[in-house]
Amino acid sequence: MNKIIVAPSILSADFSCLKEEIEKVENSGADWIHVDVMDGHFVPNLTIGAPVVKCIRKITTLPLDVHLMIENPEKYLDDFISAGSDIITFHYETVENPFDLISKIKEKGIKAGISIKPKTEAEAILPYINELDLVLVMTVEPGFGGQKFMNECALKIKKIRENASDNLIIEVDGGINSETAKICKDYGANALVSGNYIYKAQDTKKAIESLR
Ligand code: DX5
Ligand code: ZN
Q1: Domain count of the fold of the chain
Q2: Is the C or the N end of the chain the one with fewer CB within 10 Å?
Q3: What is the CATH number of the domain that holds 133?
Q4: Ligand nearest to the CA of 13
């Protein structure tokens, strides 16, 4: 397995100084910046939209890993692509025809991902894995940072890895710390999103290293 990708979630950052918060993780070894987009419908929280992604694009060279927790993701796709996203992950539960959206994302030359909520089985996304660059397994109910990791959700990583090519990035999101990261890596995950654990740490670099 290749190197483990660490993607700090800026949802746990201090938005009053977002530039410094991004620089902090960038200088501490982060691989990607994970951007949580929520619409108050698909999840019970509202966060940020494409204009903010556009601003973040100006201040970092790290890939922007955009996690769309929104209904009708196809409606906003072009906005997030032109804002400078490098990876766009939409939720399986929000679309009727995932193939359509996957090809629209890939046509623009960026990576396409699908995410599944805790109650969605791994089997649901298996038909799409050969077309995808990434699968994002949620290990909490999406909506908020700082929740407790659900091991039963992480077990889905195993099933997906067994059926996927080595090129598929399996990312995990929700309650990731040094202990839960180990469980996910053992199951076959190779990208870890982490919000609270990284942003609340005294030593950011150490926290990021401990995940790898
Ligand atoms: C939850 C988001 C996560 C979250 C992770 O809906 O998708 O990215 O911010 O935060 P932690 O690591 O604190 O669970
Ligand atoms: Zn996320």
Answers
A1: 1
A2: N
A3: 3.20.20.70
A4: 1
Question: Rounded CA gap, 211 and 4, in Å?
Answer: 8
The catalytic position among 31, 36, 39, 133 is 36
Alpha-carbon torsion (42, 6, 63, 127), positive or negative:
negative
| CA distance linking residue 97 with residue 211, whole number of Å | 35
| Cα–Cα dist 151/148, whole Å | 9
Q: Is 14 a catalytic residue?
A: no
> DSSP letters along 143-160, please?
T-SSPPP-HHHHHHHHHH
**67 Cα nearest atom in ligand 1:** 7
Strand order in the sheet with 111-116: 5-8, 191-194, 169-173, 134-138, 111-116, 87-91, 64-69, 33-38
Dig out the tokens for 158 from the structure: 């195993």
Angle, helices 18-26 vs 50-59, to 10°: value is: 50
Residue 71, CA distances (Å) to 38, 39, 44, 131, 184 in order? 9, 7, 12, 22, 28
Spatial neighbors of 16 by CB under 8 A, at least 6 apart, are none
The rounded distance, in Å, linking the Cα atoms of 69 and 78 is 16
Interval 73-125: pLDDT, tens? 999 999 999 999 999 999 999 999 999 999 999 999 999 999 999 999 999 99
Structural domain span for residue 101: 5-211
* Full-model pTM: 0.98
- Selection from 51, 20, 27 nearest residue 35 by Cα: 51
pLDDT in tens, 27-43: 999 999 999 999 999 99
